[in-house]
Amino acid sequence: MITMFWPYVPEEAISAVSEVLRGRWIGQGPKVDEVEKIFGEKFSIPYSVTVHSGTAALHLALKLCDLKEGDEVITTPMTCTATNIPILYSKSKAVFADIQENSMNIDPKDIEKRITPKTKAIMVVHWAGYPCDMAEINAIAKKYNLKVIEDAAHALGAKYQGKYIGAVSDYTCFSFQAIKQITSIDGGMLTALRENDYKRAKILRWYGIDREFKGDIYWKYQIKEIGYKYHMNDVTATILEVQLSKLEQVLKKRKAIADKYLEGLKNIGGLKLLERNPDRESGNWLFTIQVEKRDDFQKKLTDHDIESHMVHVRNDICPIFGGQRQELPIMNKLEGKYISIPLHNHLSDEDIDKVIKVIKSGW
Q1: Which residues of the chain have pLDDT under 50?
Q2: Cα–Cα nearest to 171, from 80, 86, 304, 62
């Protein structure tokens, strides 16, 4: 079976974790500080804060926006529910904007149409790792004095107009969950452009306690804002540090696979490839295509031992978000067409050739 996903865990990570487990620090310790520094330097990001999941990063980013009950966050329906459920934690409302047909990313034009006096933030997802139109989105945010949160769970290593994703907007959230480009089993990173947000996020990730305060213990526990147990530990940080040292080769392999698909699957009737513009580079977490007769397409692949999957479904169909919205015409149009095919570091050239050959033979 040619699988959709396969976690990438280098042997060096296993050895490094064994060493940490024999040492003094297994909770949040020096490895956490070290990996934050490495991450920031690697992607030219001013401030990086580790957390235990991408969802935790998103929740902290929303906390930094100071949302109140009844406030609105404009977001995409085309994502994992982990993107939008944190909006509900603050008793705010997720307002869904439509997506672009050629990228499946949120449409800046539709974002602006949905802004109201209650709007406080814009949340975007770089579908499959391909960056959204961030110049347009940040311009809209500046015009209406809104914060921008990028959910970059798909987009580690992606670039937009020469900058790494993570160094573009107010807040960016990364995931190192099991099947991402690199994994720390579970883990996340919140990046910020301003020092005050960085300091506040570090306190919020540990119950609202300033772990760096060295004075009287009673003053240390003068908690002024409710925080959470969202910190990363040294075991996870150790895995992540090793993984970051391997990232270039991981991304190179994933790009080679994507490039092979882009070449091998072009000009096939009933199949549409998503756009690739020269001003941005994808993180290539997924390889998503749009096909006619999707059920037949998936059956054909399954009959040849090839997995395929939608991966995520539109969030607005969930009862917690109010049920399916019909004012999303592009989302409605693509709902029965999009599908992702295998993309991971364990794929061989023979696997990729087989996937292309089976698809080209029709369905």
Answers
A1: none
A2: 62
